[in-house]
Amino acid sequence: MKLLSTLFYITLSFSSFAQNYYAVKLVEKTTARIEYFKNNPLEMLTQRAIDRRQVLNISFNAEDVPIDNAIILMCENTGAEILSSSKWLNTLYVSATENQKALLEEIEYVENIRSLEVSSSSKKTKSSPPSLSKQKSSIYGESEDFVTQIKIDFLHNIDFRGEGMQVAVFDAGFPGVSTTEPFKELRDRDGILGTYNFVEDIEDVYRDNQHGTMVLSTMAVNKPNTYIGTSYEAKYWLFTTEDDGSETPKEEFNWIKAIEFADSVGVDVVNCSLGYYDFDLPFKSYTYDDMDGKTTFISRAANIGGQKGIIVVISAGNEGDKAWHYIGAPADAENVISVGAVNSTGNIAGFSSFGPSADGRIKPDVVAMGVSVPVYNKYGNLSYPNGTSFSSPITAGSVACLRQAFPSAAVDLFISAVQQSADNYDSPNETYGYGIANFEGAYNILKDQLSLDYFYTDKLLITPNPISNLLKIRGVVNENVPYSILDTSGRLIKSANGNFNYGVDVSNLVQGYYYVRIEGSKFIALPFIKK
User: Fold this and answer.
1) Which pLDDT score is estimated for 164?
2) Kind of pairing between the strands at 336-342 and 166-171
3) Domain ranges of the chain
4) Which phi and psi (to 5°) does residue 190 adopt?
């Protein structure tokens, strides 16, 4: 018995201290780190390597960014030996004991550990997925379910995160956005462009109902490994248009003033998690027949917003389990994306409002997660409310990223691509509409439609812009393509063939705003400024 105990102790000691080999996959590099090295490329690449990328029109990405030395040091402090590393794979090659491996697994920056050895009977062979909380904390954190359900992570991974886009949020108030920790990154990067309270005619929106705060968090919060919104690099206008103490037509006009202002400052995307049909006495409420996209004031304004080039995203409403179970205004508008709600597994929420519009159009357009949605409240704490109020901004943030990828796509073409991407497109109905949006699919649809003949990349870029003499477009592969230059009224200024790699001469143009259009393709015109 004593001999057996001794052998057991020796075996246990050997297994605890034997060195094994592992690939340690790290979590995604932080946005701040990626942006720092993109802005300081000589700290990660030689000038020759930078020059080669520029010649071949290859963008810097996360693969070029070195692994953070602080993370490597954390791994070394476990006693594990770092034998090598790959910044492209974001992975460490290590030698570690079982005890050291266990310590590595506790590091928050470690996504997973893969054994590089052949398993033996003495080792664990059972493979189980990481716990839900561990899996979420490694990438998007609490927001992972609603991000991956509509595949907006695909756009994030190819560098479309809303950068350069402006999103206006129309809601009932934004208390806590100016003070709490979850919105610190947004404040620090000057991500709030302006505010206005159209209810009280003042600038202060950081008061009243916290609904807008929760809505904004689904798009704008950027806390790597904890919570990442759908358009966390976009910039935001915050507008209070809803008076939480009453329900009157004045709120429609607050909304109209807000969208007119949004248009005047060049906003790309509007999110509205509000809807109207039932007003307080003595005001007359709307009927279902009024939900035809052209009767209510607010829906008429929403239609105009779409005509002006704004992508307007509207919550379908939370009336699905009530006597009035239809969408409200302006979700009935034509040039908008109205959004219903499903749970994390894709089942329709009972409260999600029904379509179609009164004139028979499919509504809602798409659906996204609106059940137990993780959001940040005015105290900076997570809560898990229900509502199309949250499926709408989840979608609106994703729309901002898609708009970043295709800034020149016409609104109707853009909305159609989002609809076509959804999983119920072939058999739409009054609850799901066209189904769960798929932003990877929408991206590929627009890529096929807008980049057919002359392009090897959809990330076309006029550079420099404004232009003095030569108009260059990165991404045009053909050396001699037909093109047209138009003024802002659509009048043809010039039509010729040219090589956009070397540059097309525009020195004879007067100062002003123009569009260049590649002929013979479905590509939409790119804007440029002649200085």
Assistant:
1) 86
2) unpaired
3) 17-119, 144-450, 461-530
4) 55, 45
Q: How does DSSP assign 326-341, residue by residue?
A: B--BTTT-TTEEEEEE
Q: Which CATH architecture has domain 144-450?
A: 3-Layer(aba) Sandwich (3.40)
Total Cβ atoms within 10 A of residue 235: 22
Distance CA 429, CA 1 (A): 73
If you search the block for the tokens 């940040």, which residue do you land on? 376
Backbone phi, psi, residue 84, to 5°: -165, 175
Strand order in the sheet with 311-315: 192-197, 235-240, 166-171, 269-272, 311-315, 336-342, 366-369
Just give the CATH number of 17-119.
3.30.70
Contact call for residues 140 and 230 (beta carbons, < 8 A): no
**How do residues 231-257 score in pLDDT, each as one tens digit?**
999 999 999 999 988 898 889 989 999
HSE value, Cβ hemisphere, 13 Å, CA-based, for 4: 1
Q: Is 356 within 8 Å of 362 (Cβ atoms)? A: yes
Report the distance separating Cα 205 and Cα 378, nearest Å.
12
CA separation for the pair 482, 501 (Å, rounded): 14
Identity of the residue numbered 20: N
Model's pTM, two decimal places? 0.64
Q: Which residues on neighbouring strands pair with residue 313, listed in sequence order? A: 271, 337
The whole-angstrom separation of Cα 229 and Cα 218 is 5
Note the pLDDT tens digit of each residue in 351-384.
Answer: 999 999 999 999 999 999 999 999 999 999 999 9
Rg (CA), the chain: 27
| 418 Cβ neighbours under 8 A, 6+ residues apart | 337, 365, 366, 399, 402, 437, 439, 442
| Distances from the Cα of 180 to the Cα of 171, 206, 389, 485, 521, angstroms | 19, 11, 21, 48, 48
Q: Which helix (H) or strand (E) segment is 324 a member of?
A: none
**3-class secondary structure, 392:** helix
User: Tokens at residue 315, please?
Assistant: 């919550």
Whose structure tokens read 């550079």? Answer: 463
Pick among 1.10.3470, 1.10.357, 2.60.40, 2.20.25: CATH of 461-530: 2.60.40
Strand, helix or coil for residue 515: strand
Residue 164: Cβ within 10 Å count: 14
Return the number of other C-beta atoms located less than 10 Å from residue 72's C-beta: 16
Question: How far from 43 is each of 27, 59, 66, 274, CA to CA, in Å?
Answer: 22, 16, 9, 47
Query: In angstroms, rounded to a whole number, what is the distance separating the alpha carbons of residues 312 and 309?
Result: 9
Strand partners, 326: 354
